């Protein structure tokens, strides 16, 4: 591949018809604030800064990750490097001091309050892409997007994104203000957006930032590490699903080895090959995981590889428990 390599890693992807150009891989920072077991702030900052040095531009966070901890961490990491990154921030999830979850609030007044605190914690005067983390069932999406549109006019936000919403919500939001990307879970193990959501995005000129590329470590053979690790409660990691999925993961690991790739690289390369216009957001918690994912940019999968993977991978179990699945707008299917 020789000279082709350096070119390939320099390419950018445009987020939607109105959004920014970004490096083809984004960095998701949620895991740096204790969602998946213990973390180390110094290593987290080193990981974000290494990502920026390697050309990664899209840094994804949420104001509710670690109750502001994640934004403060990102602020330290991007100090002096602000102009090299695009910050994608999710808002709207309510937390308690004990870490509990209290639903969503995306009323216009709440949106403006959330953004004020995010700007301060991040130490920036503008957020590149601002998005509600989930649909708030008690607030019309038009009101929420309208409020962010006012923030765009006022110069506090550059672009508007969405997260985990279905086709009808995407259309309604896009009518109020151009949406640059939908953030949604997508991987070898979670392909439901292919049916209705991706075609709608293509039609509207909206991109996607794809998280959960490793299915929370399932595809790379990672296991829940004790009671603080919330994967211990996810259907794919437990019981008979967990056992069946271990066989699939074993087959994936062999497939990756035969092609001189790690399972992580295979997972990322698959997403890049299936959805070249979209941007995988990898949740690297340390420099080694980051470097591994970046290695996928120079390893391409053929059509035959993709077909072979289709026949290997059947994952058992939903991506969340029944209660959470019920509340996901992106999982509501439109019926003709």
Automatic annotation (TrEMBL):
<protein>
    <submittedName>
        <fullName>Aldo-keto reductase</fullName>
    </submittedName>
</protein>
<dbReference type="GO" id="GO:0005737">
    <property type="term" value="C:cytoplasm"/>
</dbReference>
<dbReference type="InterPro" id="IPR036812">
    <property type="entry name" value="NAD(P)_OxRdtase_dom_sf"/>
</dbReference>
<dbReference type="GO" id="GO:0016491">
    <property type="term" value="F:oxidoreductase activity"/>
</dbReference>
<dbReference type="InterPro" id="IPR050791">
    <property type="entry name" value="Aldo-Keto_reductase"/>
</dbReference>
<dbReference type="Pfam" id="PF00248">
    <property type="entry name" value="Aldo_ket_red"/>
</dbReference>
<dbReference type="InterPro" id="IPR023210">
    <property type="entry name" value="NADP_OxRdtase_dom"/>
</dbReference>
<feature type="domain" description="NADP-dependent oxidoreductase">
    <location>
        <begin position="24"/>
        <end position="312"/>
    </location>
</feature>
<keyword id="KW-0560">Oxidoreductase</keyword>
């Amino acid at each position: 591949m020789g000279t082709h390599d350096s070119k390939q890693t320099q390419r950018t992807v445009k987020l939607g018809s109105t959004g920014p150009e970004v490096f083809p891989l984004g960095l998701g920072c949620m895991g740096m604030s204790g969602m998946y077991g213990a973390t180390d702030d110094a290593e987290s900052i080193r990981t974000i800064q290494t990502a920026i040095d390697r050309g990664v531009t899209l840094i994804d966070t949420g104001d509710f990750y670690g109750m502001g901890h994640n934004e403060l961490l990102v602020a330290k990491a991007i100090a002096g490097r602000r102009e090299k990154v695009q910050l994608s921030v999710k808002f709207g999830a309510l937390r308690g001091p004990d870490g509990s979850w209290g639903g969503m609030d995306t009323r216009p007044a709440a949106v403006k309050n959330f953004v004020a605190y995010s700007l301060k914690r991040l130490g920036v005067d503008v957020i590149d892409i601002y998005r509600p983390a989930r649909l708030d069932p008690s607030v019309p999406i038009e009101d929420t997007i309208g409020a962010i549109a006012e923030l765009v006019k006022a110069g506090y936000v550059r672009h508007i994104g969405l997260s985990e919403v279905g086709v009808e919500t995407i259309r309604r939001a896009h009518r109020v203000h151009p949406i640059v990307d939908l953030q949604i879970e997508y991987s070898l193990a979670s392909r439901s957006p292919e049916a209705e959501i991706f075609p709608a995005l293509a039609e509207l000129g909206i991109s996607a930032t794809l998280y959960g590329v490793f299915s929370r470590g399932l595809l790379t053979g990672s296991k829940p590490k004790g009671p603080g690790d919330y994967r211990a409660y996810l259907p794919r990691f437990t019981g008979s699903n967990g056992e069946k999925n271990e066989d699939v993961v074993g087959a994936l690991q062999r497939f990756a080895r035969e092609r001189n790739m790690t399972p992580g690289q295979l997972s990322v390369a698959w997403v890049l090959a299936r959805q070249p216009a979209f941007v995988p957001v990898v949740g690297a918690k340390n420099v080694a995981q980051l470097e591994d994912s970046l290695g996928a940019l120079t390893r391409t999968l053929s059509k035959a590889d993709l077909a072979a993977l289709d026949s290997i991978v059947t994952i058992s179990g939903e991506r969340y428990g029944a209660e959470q699945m019920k509340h996901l707008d992106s999982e509501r299917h439109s019926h003709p």
